[in-house]
């Protein structure tokens, strides 16, 4: 896939793994700039383990507060795979999914915190 395949979708212009902050920063060509904690990326992983096989199957993970990002690798030129310190690495984060995670960060994070509380999980 090339950039032209994604003509009308945001495209990353810079991706930085911030080891000390345990975060990933992504800048997009539409001017958006997002900083994602490892915990947020882990609990919103696009993997089947978290997302299931449909919207009604999404699973709330606990115990991810101390999860770190070990490495980030390119998947073609359309996504990245994040290798987390808990050995999770099956989610492929497309550019559009990362952009969506950034735009919906407050909403997603609030929902996650509420679900953790409701389910009696620790972060």
TrEMBL record:
UniProt KW keywords: Iron, Metal-binding
MF term (GO), any: metal ion binding
Database matches in Pfam families: GBBH-like_N
Domain Gamma-butyrobetaine hydroxylase-like N-terminal: 15-99
InterPro entries: GBBH-like_N (IPR010376), GBBH-like_N_sf (IPR038492)
Protein's name according to its UniProt entry: Gamma-butyrobetaine hydroxylase-like N-terminal domain-containing protein
Organism: Candidatus Odyssella acanthamoebae
């Amino acid at each position: 896939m090339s950039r032209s395949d994604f003509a009308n979708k945001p495209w990353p212009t810079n991706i930085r793994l911030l080891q000390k902050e345990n975060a990933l920063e992504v800048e997009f060509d539409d001017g958006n700039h997002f900083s994602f904690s490892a915990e947020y990326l882990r609990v919103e992983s696009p993997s089947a383990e978290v997302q299931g096989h449909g919207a009604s199957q999404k699973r709330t993970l606990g115990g991810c507060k101390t999860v770190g990002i070990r490495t980030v690798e390119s998947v073609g030129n359309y996504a990245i795979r994040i290798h987390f310190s808990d050995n999770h690495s099956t989610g492929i984060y497309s550019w559009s999914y990362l952009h969506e995670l950034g735009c919906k960060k407050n909403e997603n994070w609030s929902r996650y915190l509420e679900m953790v509380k409701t389910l009696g999980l620790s972060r």
